[in-house]
Design goal:
2 copies of one chain form a homodimer. The first copy, chain A, has 144 residues and is mainly α. Chain A has a single domain, classed as Arc Repressor Mutant, subunit A. In chain A, 54% of the residues lie in helices and 6% in strands. Chain A binds a DNA duplex (30 and 30 nucleotides) through helix 3.
Chain lengths: 144, 144
DNA sequence: TTTAATTCCCACTTATTCAGTAGGATTATA
DNA sequence: TATAATCCTACTGAATAAGTGGGAATTAAA
């Protein structure tokens, strides 16, 4: 039941772009340094965010990435699903369920379905804007 | 974010023992046949349930396993945690969290924590007795 | 116009986990 | 005493995780 580094890093990457946004492109190297993640690995993660239109890339020197939309337009669920795939705990529930011979009278599937709903409920109701808010709360509390 | 076969089979195993309980020990071979799971694999899964005292084993011919307690005494969470380990989506939240350098001002950790709470809320509030109920509902609906 | 910084693309690697199999020792019943 | 069961330990093959490495294409700045 773990979320892989791919999903976790993608979320931190998006949050980093939101946090340090100035209107100028932000290079992966900068993100990697701040987030302490291998830049080569980030390079492997970002194409899916790019293809989905979640970020805009600027090539060449002084290039980098920018969020394509406002932080409040991105839910955590959107970002995680892109990198993790479906968040359902088993294949027989979720976006495109694989039905088995017992699916009709399978009480256990009801458990998976409820877990699925509960997880979606959380990730689809938190946006990058919320994360920005939470960050500034922490700053108020600990640093200033 | 998937639950492995180990956890899923453990739950079906426990539910099978509850469903077909007559007071006599039930052999893994019977469970395996009904649930369409390799008996050798079940043999590998059950020791943890046994050591935890969730089932009682009877050795020798006509031996097998019995639930140690009433179905309502087992939550899905108890069973899954035994076989899957902690259900937390990352290591920095959950039962014994591994703290990182940023844990204090990590907005992302709040997301993981909420997912963790949501999952626990589900699995800790469904018992084997609930699953038995759901099963008989299905029977009413489809078979009878 | 060259240099340097950057994205883009694709192949490779190493370790771990998953999902079982296999074989035999031990125990108890009929 | 034969048989049916649990118990225990080791092995295996495939997939996934978590990166690394090299180089081509693009563009801003010197």
């Amino acid at each position: 039941m773990k979320i892989s580094t791919k999903g976790r890093y993608a979320l931190r990457l998006m949050l980093d772009l939101a946090t340090y946004n100035t209107g100028e492109p932000i290079s992966l190297k900068d993100v990697a340094k701040r987030q302490q993640i291998s830049d080569k690995y980030l390079e492997q993660i970002i194409p899916s965010l790019n293809r989905a239109g979640y970020v805009r890339s600027v090539r060449g020197a002084q290039g980098g990435y920018l969020l394509a939309k406002e932080p409040k337009e991105y839910t955590v669920g959107m970002i995680l699903r892109l990198t993790e795939g479906d968040l359902a705990p088993v294949n027989c529930v979720g976006e495109n369920p694989v039905s088995c011979d017992y699916s009709e009278n399978c009480a256990v599937a009801k458990v998976w379905s409820r877990i699925n709903d509960a997880v979606n409920q959380v990730v689809d109701n938190i946006t990058l804007a919320d994360l920005l808010d939470w960050q500034s709360d922490y700053v108020d509390q600990y640093i200033i």
